[in-house]
Amino acid sequence: MDDFIAARSQMALSLGFHIVFACIGMIMPFFMAVSHYKYLKTGNTTYRNITKAWSKGVAIFFATGAVSGTMLSFELGLLWPRFMLHAGPIFGMPFSLEGTAFFIEAIALGFYLYGWDRFNKWFHWITGVIVGVSGLASGILVVAANAWMNSPAGFDYADGRYLNIDPIAAMFNKAWFSQSLHMIIAAVAATGFAVAGVHALMVLRKKNVAFHTKAFRIAAVFACVAALLQPISGDHSAKDVAKRQPAKLAAMEAHFNTQTSAPLILGGLPDEKTGTVKYALEIPGGLSFLAHGNFKAEVTGLNAIQVQNRPPVAITHFAFQMMVGLGMFMCLVAVLYFIAIWKKRSWLQQGWLLKLFVICVPLGYLAVEAGWTVTEVGRQPWIMYGIMRTRDAVTPMPGVAYTFYVFTSIYLSLSLIVVFLLYRQVKMVPFLYDKP
């Protein structure tokens, strides 16, 4: 395996695993805090038991996320030293602040896990909220650093030198808000559907129904609200990308020719050699409207981008279509769930609705992975958009391919351990917690 490909593959693998742990670590504490609040207000011990069960899940993912995140920080320096040499002083601030947020999260989680019946009950609850807030802050800060790679800011670049560095401007670059918002909502939807789906499966199997029904409802509300908000966030992100990274938008939509009233392409097989898309469904003017809010607006095509600066079209397009398709399916499930709550209460007693949530267990994370593929692959061939190419940033050290295989083994082992621990936790629920 070529060292450049090996380095990119290793980074992609590491990010692909870590992002799942990060999403759960950011969002699960809020589920836990809501359940705990319900217990404090109602005195219903089922909510206390749900809270304790979820807090153990949070601890598991915190530990694995810490391991995978630490490995990522080393990989940045070892695999991309030329990039970090120049970029480190510019976008190092969000990483430093992320480390601070991580330590606050760790301290708060320790208080929360061991504070039952030891602290004032509301102080104890607040420590759980702090776990969620600090985890969310960590996620936003990391995404801000990634957004900087898509929208470099906070410095002047002249004659190959980086001058007048402003870390604050770098952190609050033009892409940070849209990327952070889209990522947070995606994390809520993915984690919400995963958690709700697991509890829905337990309800379908008639296992500790009261416990799992209450847990399902909390997670389902988070998931469904996020699923319905995500298209709005996605529209904002697409318009932002259209302004800053027209090549990425063109690759996402397999839009080869610059034109007015550009059609929105659904599905299809892009052919980069001929600049065509086969078997696609086209909505006239759809892309112009989504990108610029005008059905007749001109949209830049790949033909306006130099060949050496074009992202891989097929991967970017398929990943984007996958993300949108999965997102729309989750929107449909969300709509059905809210109709059931407001108008069709009988649906809540029927198995088909719960089965839809079970189907959604992996879909949110598949959409997240697809979205990050669009973000990263769509930026290529740049590691720092418009300034430094990815190939110029990789380490010249030979043997990177071997570390790729080692890290792959480590991440697979971590995943198996997490699956085992979570499976055991779910199976032990009836024995650890009294049935109401």
What report would you give on this structure?
This protein has 436 residues and is mainly alpha-helical. It has a domain at 230-397. The protein is built from 14 helices and eight strands. Strands 1-2 form a two-stranded antiparallel ribbon. A two-stranded antiparallel sheet has the order 3-6. A hairpin with a 4-residue loop joins strand 4 (264-271) and strand 5. It starts with a helix and ends with a helix. The model has no long low-confidence stretch (mean pLDDT 85).
Overall pLDDT confidence: 85
Question: How many E strands?
Answer: 8
Summarize the main sheet: 2 strands, antiparallel
Distance N to C terminus = 57 Å
State the helical fraction: over 70%
Percent range for β-strand residues: 5-15%
Q: Output the helix-strand order.
A: HHHHEEHHHHEEEHEHHHEEHH
Rg value: 23 Å
Structural class: mainly alpha
Shape call = globular
Show the helix and strand layout.
Blueprint: H1 3-42, H2 45-79, H3 81-114, H4 121-150, E1 156-158, E2 161-163, H5 167-171, H6 176-204, H7 209-244, H8 246-252, E3 259-260, E4 264-271, E5 276-283, H9 286-292, E6 298-299, H10 313-342, H11 351-359, H12 363-377, E7 382-384, E8 388-389, H13 390-393, H14 400-432
Antiparallel strand pairs: 1-2, 3-6, 4-5, 7-8
Provide tags for this entry:
single chain, 436 residues, mainly alpha, two-stranded antiparallel sheet, two-stranded antiparallel ribbon, 7% strand, globular
